[in-house]
UniProtKB/TrEMBL annotation:
Superkingdom, natural source: Bacteria
InterPro entries on file: AAA+_ATPase, ABC_transporter-like_ATP-bd, ABC_transporter-like_CS, ABC_transpr_LolD-like, MacB-like_ATP-bd, P-loop_NTPase
PROSITE patterns in UniProt: ABC_TRANSPORTER_1, ABC_TRANSPORTER_2
Domain ABC transporter: start-end pairs: 6-244
Organism: Nonomuraea angiospora
SUPFAM superfamilies for the chain: P-loop containing nucleoside triphosphate hydrolases
Protein name as catalogued: ABC transport system ATP-binding protein
Amino acid sequence: MSHAAIRACALAKTHGAGQGLLRAVDEVDLEVPQGQLLAVMGPSGCGKSTLLHLLGGLERPTGGQVWLAGQRIDTLSERALARLRRRSVGFVFQAFHLVEELSAAENVELPVLLAGRSWREARRRTGLLLERVGLSDRARHLPSQLSGGQRQRIAIARALANDPLVLLADEPTGNLDSAATFEVLRIFQELRAAGQTLVIVTHDERVAATADRLISMRDGMFVDDTRLEGTHARGLGGLIGLEG
Ligand SMILES: Nc1ncnc2c1ncn2[C@@H]1O[C@H](COP(=O)(O)OP(=O)(O)OP(=O)(O)O)[C@@H](O)[C@H]1O
């Protein structure tokens, strides 16, 4: 039997206690099939980032369970969880979070080396990934020598470096102009077409329009969960002004 890429059951994260108790994520159930591009929207503070962190093992839930490709992750030891994050989860952030002292290529090589693979393998993977994000000619540039859109494409290459089970992106286009947003969405579409599972937290309707499925959150809960089959092309077409 094949497993869902992501499964969560009564997943919860609370902060504080008593009168001050805050339910950042309030007992949500979620199943994301392999290869789905899921967008999560909702007002500021509704728990989107927290949800993403729980799914990727960046934060531990205070209740419920999470599985990645059938493996329960909320009960893993710190050591096992760190290993899982390094090898099986790719994160993309709004502010890129590249290592400023390293070149574009070195930023992509780093997680491959940290996962215990060889220099040779790191270089091989980096070459392929830079090509995939269209930045082979920027390999030796420092992040400060790249545009915002180029930095985010390097960050995506880095997130993919260990061939993750899931790619989790938190406002990936939040700092980008329309042209750079389009480039990033194009890469996400290509990844999706290749079977990559993606969960994207966004405030941007244009990003959500390219997803297979849209979940709307409020106060830590899912208030809507809609399949958007067949809208990818329209979403991208609209973005580059092909539609009136
Ligand atoms: N470490 C923490 N301690 C206390 N409260 C927290 C902590 N982390 C998050 N919260 C609260 O949990 C709620 C959900 O936060 P979260 O960052 O997940 O929201 P969000 O939907 O991603 O918001 P935004 O769109 O502004 O990024 C917020 O009310 C936030 O203030």
